[in-house]
Please model this.
Amino acid sequence: MWYRIYGWKENPFSNKAGVELVGVDAEKERIKDYVVAGDICFLTGERGVGKTSLLGWLRDSLRRHSFIYIDGEEYEEVDLDYLLKKNAGFWRKYPKNAVLLIDESQGVDEDLKKLLRIYWEKGLIRSVVISQIDDKLKNFSDDIKHRIGFRVIGLGKLNSSDSVRLIKDRCKANCPFDDVAINSIVEISDGNPRRILENCERVCIEVRKKGITKYDVEKVLLDEEDKDKIEFSPMQKKIIELLKKKDMNVKEIVELTRSTEGSIGKQMSNLIQRDLIKIVSDKRPKVYGLVGKE
Model:
């Protein structure tokens, strides 16, 4: 498998729910406090910021509670009474400290919305966590919104330092990216944890080498129309401008830039790796031109 190239026993960028979370320590404490207190609370945030993972962490953290997890996108109709009794054990009709977790709640039916309030008021459900993308809870009644009140937990994008920590924590001692490459992945992923992990996996699968650079990352992740976002050194810009006019060999470029063959050779190699220039003639001296130039 591809991850063995980097010394990993399994894919470290797995995006399965319930994995360790980064940058949400305050949110962890708040959602735990609300559940222990027996409240109805609301968890919101765009796709990929870790809502489902936070619910998984909550289940693992409160061992004395009975959690009933419902994926609103998977089940259109839910028999809440059946699910509660199923988790009650042999001696009880309903479970003790039952907590209802409704993920992607925009998809659940109206009957469940009514029942969760009734069961909560009767004490058959100790706490409810409603999770969805829409931060206005438009699909829930004013009655439910009133019971939620201020108990709203919003998950947002990771800042730069937490994004870097997410990557390094996953890679552990076998990090194939240099620091500049990591920063490039973070910038392209725009602080979305799921996107960060997916982009790390994509780069590793396609590059398949240790010592992954920023240029490797950009080559894999940037679309053709985004090539102008790639940063160039002043010398690289000069080389590109010269090759726009005509194809040249290294000695010609050295003379026009007043640089050394070693310096120009290094920059040319860098631009070839980024798939921006190519060898157009293998005869000595080799001639170089821009990729895509007619």
Observations:
- The mean pLDDT is 89.
- Strands lie at 40-44, 66-71, 98-103, 127-132, 152-154, 248-249, 277-281, 287-290.
